[in-house]
Amino acid sequence: MIISTKSTYDKKISSTFIYFFGSFGGILFGYDIGVMTGALPFLQKDWALQGNASIIGWITSAVMFGEIFGGALAGQLSDRLGRRKMILISALIFIAGSVLSGISPHNGQYYLISMRILLGLAVGAASAIVPAYMSEMAPARLRGRLSGINQTMIVSGMLLSYIVDFLLKDLPEAYAWRLMLSLAAVPAIILFFGVLHLPESPRFLVRNNKLSAARKVLGYIRPKIEIENELQQIQQMTNDEEKANQQTSWSTLLSDKFSYLVIAGVGVAAFQQFQGANAIFYYIPLIVEKATGHAASSQLMWPIIQGIILVLGSLVFLLIADRFDRRKLLMVGGMVMGLSFILPAIINSILPNTDPRMIVFFLCIYVGFYSFTWAPLTWVIVGEIFPLAIRGRASGMASSFNWIGSFLVGLLFPIMTSLVSQEAVFAIFGIICMLGVLFVSACVPETRGHTLEEIEENGTNRKHQQPLEEM
């Protein structure tokens, strides 16, 4: 049977279906973040990797290494092929990478690392394209909430992987981790068949002179009275770019016209990862093992607790996303997250006999605030702050910088904790959280409640117009 990848624009598609499957790519990202949390202790025992911090770091972070390139490549290709088609391609690559990871030969460390890099290409592509697709489909008044659905999907994928890991923990270690990794193909298959029925982004369609198709798509997700006005806004911005004969390239991102918004979006994406969240997500059983002295393979209930906190936090975000300014949420979240990392180090230096499980308590506070501030808002901002002319490339760059941070954290965390105390390592992340607060205060404009065209017009002409916050 041949499956066509062309959308059917003559059939009515509900906005709920569009928003659900438009954000479902987050499930892939979330499952792959979470699955190694449970698989790693079994893999360590099966391949006798205990004490080999560098190999553990590489196997864990190989996905992020692939994501660095997947995000950049997909961002560029999505401007040519479309957001929807790139999500489909990502799903197919993810299916292949998941199955191939699960059938790794015994002690095939470098084979598994290669397969996880392949997975990273798919995850990086999805992380770049899904937020852009969602922001281009969502109306301005609901864009934060609907884009935040992507974060709910991510943390739901993480929680799903934690539950799968827990259910499979009694299998022989050689089978447990293989099945954990292979089951990642299931959500990717669901994503592929769901996205087959999605329409393309109206902004991409307008840019490619498919006005009737763009009007049809807007009819699915906007009240009839708003369709023509929004279509005209999109056309006007596109025509202005064509009149200026704007030739988009990587150097364009650093031009005077766009650099301010690019620095803001890419900076937020980078800080999100350098703040150390993935150190917790990937290594929580090993962190608890070091704090309590109990085997990591018996600590798989902690990831489930963490996953529940993340899901609840993402639901909180959906309630508050369009009620509070993006900047304020990022700054409050960053300060609490920073303190959650720094305080254990201070307490431990003053009271060295403090129960080492104290750090787990503070990590839960970190995860709680991260879950409804930096985790979802990073991708909301990345999805809405970049002008149409550079959105694909800039989103890809932001995703790549995000994954550079994620890769380095995943690779270096086990090495760092083998050299110094966990409290000292987390204190470093806490300082980075505080620097992120300063960056948001100085460099990131407020975007809540503004259309993508308003953000572009005011951001690219900031020297001649009042800031978005004052509009």
Q: SSE layout and pairings?
A:
Layout: H1 15-23, H2 25-46, H3 53-81, H4 83-102, H5 109-137, H6 143-167, H7 173-182, H8 185-195, H9 202-207, H10 211-221, H11 224-243, H12 259-274, H13 277-292, H14 301-320, H15 326-350, H16 358-372, H17 374-385, H18 391-419, H19 422-443, H20 452-460
Helix pairs in contact: 1-6, 2-5, 2-6, 2-7, 2-13, 3-4, 3-5, 3-18, 4-5, 4-7, 4-8, 5-6, 5-17, 5-18, 6-14, 6-17, 10-11, 12-17, 12-18, 12-19, 13-16, 13-18, 14-16, 15-16, 15-19, 16-17
Describe this structure in words.
It contains 20 helices and no strands. The chain has a single domain (about 15-470), classed as MFS general substrate transporter like domains (Growth Hormone, Chain: A, Up-down Bundle). It has helices spanning about 15-25, 25-45, 55-80, 85-100, 110-135, 145-165, 175-180, 185-195, 200-205, 210-220, 225-245, 260-275, 275-290, 300-320, 325-350, 360-370, 375-385, 390-420, 420-445, 450-460. The chain is mostly helical and about 475 residues long. The longest helix has 29 residues, at about 55-80. The N and C termini lie far apart (about 55 Å). α3 (about 55-80) runs parallel beside α5 and α6 packs across α17 (about 375-385). It is about 75% helix and about 0% strand.
